[in-house]
Amino acid sequence: MRGSMSVAGSERPARYELLGELASGGMATVYLGRRQSGAGARLVAIKSMRQELAADEAFAAMFLDEATLTAQIKHPNVVATLDVVSAEGKLLIVMEYVEGVSLAKLLELAWGRRTRVPPAVGVRILTDVLRGLHAAHELVDERGRPLSVVHRDVSPQNVIVGLDGVARILDFGVAKAASQRHVTERGEIKGKLSYMPPEQQFGEPVDRRSDVYAAGVVLWELLVGRRLFTARDDDELARLVFEGRIDPPSVAAEHVPPALDRVVLRALAHRREDRWWSAEQMAEELRGAVAPAPRGDVVATLRAIAQGEIDARARHVGELDSPRAARLEREAQTVLEVLTSRGAEVIPEPLPFAPVTKVESPSARDVAREASRPRAPSETSRPAESRASRRAKRRAARRLRLGLVIGGIILAIVLLMVVALVLGLKAREAEGASPALTSWGSPTAPSIFTHDAPSSAARAGAGTLEKISGV
C-alpha cells in the first residue's frame, strides 16, 4: 500500500503522502508525492539525494545550494521549490510536479522519427528557458546584493516542456553563487562537455554569458534536429568546442530561417565578450528574428511527437496514485520517516517560493555516544543497519585487507634486502681472508698473469717452512 505521511499519535492530516518512485539517477531518486494543505492537495516531486552522497559533505553542500537558490527564484519558467528537509542523514527537496516531457526526450523522439520541432516552436521553448535563466542571473540577497548565480549545466536534460505549453528549467545542482556552501575548486569541471563554453572547460571563472553559450547549443540542436558536437571521446569533443567551427543553422538545415543564424552564432561565440551580454538580450533578439509560436502550437507539437511518452507517464502516475499501489521500497520508507519526523504541529501553508526549512538532525557527539553505549541483550533485536552502512563497512574491510597485503609485501621486500646485505658483507669478509684474493689487483702485488720472481716475503716464508719441516 502507499506510505502515509501522517504523524504517529496525531489526528491531524498528513502534510505529505508518498506515492512511489518516478525516476532515478546517479545523484538522486525522485519520488511522486501529494502535498496536503488547507487549499487542497497537489502532486509534488520529492528529490532525495542518494545515501552514499548525503554522507559526503561536498555533495551535500552542493545539493543544498540547489535548494537554497531555486527556492528564491520566483519565475514561471523555473521549476518551483516548495520545501527543503535536511535531517537524519537525508537531504530532500520538494518541488512542483510538472506534467510534461523533458526537452532531451522530445528531441530523442523527434530524431528517432525523422521529424523536427518547428522553428517557431523552438523559439518559444528557448525564449522560456532564457527568461528563467535571466531571473536566476538577476537574483539578489535580502540586501540587494547580486548573488551571481550561474546555472552551469544548461542542457536539454534540464529543461521540461509542460502540457501547458510552458518550458521550465530545473536542476541548479551545479549552480555557482557567491553565497554557495560548496565552492568548486579552480580547475574542477561540472556539467556536460557538449554544452560547455571554452572557459568552463578550462576551469576558468564563469558568468551569465556561459549560460548564454549553453542555451545557444540547445537552440542550434533544437532547430537543426541533431547534436552540434559529436566525437569519439572527451578529448576530441573538447577540441571541437575549442575550435568553434559551427555551421549556421540555416546551412545545416534548410527549413531554418536565415534570420536565426545571427542570434545563434553570436551566442556560440568563442570569446565571451562577443556573446549576448545577458539571457534577456538574447531572448529579445530571438523574438525579433522569428515570432514565437503560441502556447497551443507547443502543446500540439509535444503531443504529435511524444504522445506515447505522455501516456506512459500518465499511466505510471495513475498506478502510483491507485489504492492498489505496491508497498513502498525500504529507501522510500526512509524518506517517508524523515518527513514524518518533523513533528505533529500544524504547519502553515507556505508561499509558492517559501524560504528553506531545515530540520536539524542529532549532533555527531550524541550519535557517537549512542553508538558506543553498551547494549543490553534485549536490544539485540533492533532493525538491521542500512544498506549504506553495510556498504561502508565492506569498503572499510576491503581497504584494511588491501593495506595488510601491501604492508606484508613491503615487509618481505625489506627482509630480502637485509638478507642480501648480510650475505654481501660475509662474502667481502671471506674475500679479505684469502691471500690470493687480497693480493689480486693490489698495486704492489705481483700479477697472477706474469712469472715475476718470488718476493722477499715469499722467500722468508719458504725458509721458515724448511726449518719447521727439518729439511
Describe what you observe in this structure.
This protein is of the alpha+beta class. It has helices at 51-54, 57-72, 103-112, 119-137, 198-201, 208-224, 234-243, 249-252, 259-267, 279-289, 295-320, 330-340, 364-372, 387-433, 435-439, 456-469, and strands at residues 3-4, 16-24, 28-37, 40-49, 81-87, 90-96, 100-102, 159-162, 167-169. It has a single domain (3-340), classed as Transferase(Phosphotransferase), domain 1, CATH 1.10.510. It contains 16 helices and 9 strands. The strands form 2 sheets. It has a 6-stranded antiparallel sheet with strand order 1-2-3-4-6-5, with helices on both faces. A 3-stranded antiparallel sheet has the order 7-8-9. Helix 4 (119-137) packs antiparallel against helix 6 (208-224). The longest helix has 47 residues, at 387-433. Residues 1-14, 342-372, 377-387 and 436-471 have low confidence and may be disordered.
What's the layout of helices and strands?
Layout: E1 3-4, E2 16-24, E3 28-37, E4 40-49, H1 51-54, H2 57-72, E5 81-87, E6 90-96, E7 100-102, H3 103-112, H4 119-137, E8 159-162, E9 167-169, H5 198-201, H6 208-224, H7 234-243, H8 249-252, H9 259-267, H10 279-289, H11 295-320, H12 330-340, H13 364-372, H14 387-433, H15 435-439, H16 456-469
Antiparallel strand pairs: 1-2, 2-3, 3-4, 4-6, 5-6, 7-8, 8-9
